[in-house]
Structures are given as C-alpha cells and as structure tokens.
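Lab meeting prep.
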Amino acid sequence: MNVFISGLGLIGGSIAKIIAKSRVDTQITAFDIDKQNIDYLQKQNIVRYIDNFVQGAKSADIIILAASVNVIKQNLNELNKIKFDHSVLVTDVGSSKASILKMAEKLTNPKIKFLGGHPMSGSHLSGSQFSDINLFKKHYYFLVNQNATENQIDMFKALMRPANVIFKNMPASKHDDFVSLVSHLPHALIFNFMDSVSQEAKLLGVDLTLAGGGLYDTTRIAMGDAQMWTDVILNNSSKILEQLNIYEKNLQDFKHFMEEKDKDAIFSMIERANKARTEMEG
C-alpha cells in the first residue's frame, strides 16, 4: 500500500512513524517545503522524499494532508486536477473541519473519498525532529466522514493502530464548536495574554525569566507555531469570536467582583474553576 503524507512537521512526522510501525505493508512517501523535516525522517528510513505534491499524490492509495489548514485547502484544490484511475482515500489533520469539508465537497473525481480527521494532541514544538510515535497515545482522534467507505476507514485505523488513539466520530459543526472552546479560544487568549504581559514587563523594566512556575505553565502554548495558529484562528474565527464574547462577559463580571471587593463571588468562581479542572483529570 502506498501512503503519501503532505506535511512532515510534528503531526505529519508522528503519523509517519506510527504507520511505519503498523503491521500493514506500506511504502511511505512524503513532501514538505522544509527539507529538514524530510531529511530527519529519511535518515531513519521512515519516508521516501517526493519533490512535489502532485507526484506523490497520484500514485498513492492513502493521502494524508498534515500541513496547516490553508495548505490543506490548497492540496484539496490540487487533487481536483489529478486524474486518478484508482480509488484513493484522502484524510487530513486540520483543526477547522467545516471549512476543510466545504473544500473537500468540491472534489469531483468519484475515485477520491474524503475522511476528515483531527488528533486532539500536539505540542508547542514543531518539526519532524520532535515527532513521536506516542504523541497521540490515549488521546481522542476525531473523524468527520464525508464519503469514505467502511473498508477505507478500517484500513486507516489499522495504519494508526500503533498510536493507541481513541477514535470518535463527530459532525464538522459540532467538532468546530468543541475545538474552538477547548483549544482555539485558549490559544488565542494565551497568545494575547503573553504579548500583553511581555509589553508591560518591558515598560516596567521587569525580567520575565524571574517569573515563577505559574507563568511558565500557563503560557507554554504561546510558543506554538505562529503561521499555523494564524491559519487556525482565521479559519475558525466565527466560532472563536462567539466564545470570546462569552469570555469577555465573564471577565467583566470578574472585574466587577474585584472592584466591589466581593469576596464570596471571587471565592465561588475560583472554587468552580478548581472543581472543573480537577474533574478533567478523571
């Protein structure tokens, strides 16, 4: 089976390692604009380099689109120009499913079947050198099926078996609502918060490296890839803005509690937050 991966960063590189460990007989080819990502996995004999997207895609049985959301959309547009004479499963890892599914609907070749995907795991680190076969272990991997057959879905799951993920089917709109709340909104807030704190620290002449663990723990995700997260935020902006409006109201309430020295309200809010975060641990 020929598997082609477009985008060999943290996610794509991890998927390449996972598939290489599967029991399915595969040949993995890959394309990435960053040659360092390719070189790292080539040296481990995990992938074979293809110098352009079309060349890699046209001979593949499964195509995995693992670049940024905007590049995934470009890839889907390119797939429409390829005359496949065999069935091919196309799947992706983008975190904004509705916009990607809308683009996938434009695929006119009946040989192409599309299965939207999104692993709920990542890191602030980027590049294939940080790829890890255990990156998705015991995390949810959302599937948003457009028209893939059951056999194709089963084959993809077989390729991903070494990852030990928990597959979960979810409609695109529900996925984007959920992900905007638990991933996109937190990232947007932390990017803004870290930028604000950094600028204020400069004005005060404060060295942020002196900060305690709280700031380090809270702002780790601010080190996420700027290009990737710009694409994510713009592609799911309507959902994020809805959540931001709710957050702004809650923040104004909290500000009011502080202005009024409302000890009970502040305590109750912190207690609810503490309980909610504790429950996330299971």
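Slide two material, second protein:
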Amino acid sequence: MPYLTTNTLTSRPTRGLGTISQVIIKTVNNGSSKAVVYITGLNNDVTPETLFAQELFEVNYREVVTRIYNITQTYFQFNAVYSQEQTQIQIFLVDSAGVLSQVALEQLEVSRITSEFRENIAVTASDFALISFRRNTAVVIPEAVAAEIKPDSLEILASTPIRYKIVGGGTVNGTFVNFPTPTTAISATETALQVNYTCTAVTGGRVITQGIGSGIAGAYQNVAANLTSQQLLYNLTDEIITLVVSSLAGSDNLAAVFRMSEEW
C-alpha cells in the first residue's frame, strides 16, 4: 500500500531515548521505474494540526533519497504517499545524543476506482484499442501526483470468442480528456487520470498481460478479468495503458469497461 503514517510521535524522552531533535526519512525505490513521493510533517501541538514539512520529489530506480527534518514540536507525525508499490520508506527518530530509533509505520487503506465504458464497438480479427488511460500532468494535488495507479479489472460483453490485451506504453490515436466523460460522472478533482475513449489503434508498447474469452452466438457473454491479482509490472508514471480487443471468430460488436485503481 502506498500510504503510510507514523501516527502521533513525541519529542519528549521515551523508550531509552533522550529528547528528539531530528527525524531522518530514507526512501529506496526497488520498483521498475521512477517513483514520486509526497511527505508531510504535521505539528500536532495545535488544533487543527498544521504543516511544518512538505516535500514532493522523484526517486529514480534503485536510488536512495534521504531527508532530514529538525523537530521543535512536542507532538508531531509524518505521512508518506508514493507511486511505486515496491518503494520502501523508513523513518528514524534521532535524539540529542545522536541515538537512532526506527519508527513503526502504519499502512492506511485509501483507494478509489476510476473507470470508463464504451459500447457498440465493431471489432474484427485486427487489434482495436478500446480505452486508454494516462496520468493527468495538470493535476496539482500532491497526493494525486504521488498516487500509485495500476490496472484493476475489465469486463467485456461479446457474442464471439475474443482476445484482450493490456498494452503499456506506445502511442494511441484519439484524444485524452479529463473526467467527467459522457458515460462516467467522475469529478476531475477526484482522479489523477485522463482517459481516451475515442482511440482505435495503439502503436508500439508492450503487452503486460492478455487473455481470451468465449462468446455465445446470438447472445452476449461477459468476459471479466481481475488484473490486480496478477500483480502486473507497469509504469504509469510516464506511460499510457490501453485495453486492446480483437475477435477470434469473424466480426462482433462489443461493450467494455476498463477500471484503474488509484491509491491516494
């Protein structure tokens, strides 16, 4: 999970430590691409709590980034949001004698699903790009900028056997737009994504996963896939991700939903 918190800490002497004077935060990116990290330090001496530290930064693959914060508050906490699931963050208290103590971090269950729907799409044996997502570079909410985003699931209604692919990277035709769309009422401030529902083709890229589904002549069959359980290798920091479908038996008209998980 990409949302961590220390909960409330104190700078007073405790657990064999003297007065806490600093906090060290170490971030290691073990993922497949660069990560975006958003760290906040909260002053819990006052109500409502106020920010005394706030940083948004990138961590390249296999890079280690260290941040040091001076502590003057009696009660405080740190929160961290990051975009790569395999990023690791450790937080250490440093007392006035230079003794370090690692802080236990709590993972918070924070997530949302962003999806798009297309229907009456004619497909043949050739690949057809149905729906494509990318990060919205105009988003200014730090938690959204640092959000971990990954494919969640898909559903396809078809009357013939079909093949689907999830393609990472490459380029698509059509236009990426902000939400809401004509079929999906999601506020633009509630997602870090843009969607392209007018695309028809993707060029380049790589197949992250694929599958097939059976259809029933004269009736629709629902093909569903849980993509989260596949733990896909992806890079939605810089790349687009596209649902591509083709028919295995002549032509067909499809309807499809493609869902993305955003954790922020």
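Talking points for slide two:
The helical segments are 142-145.
The first strand starts at residue 3 and ends at 5.
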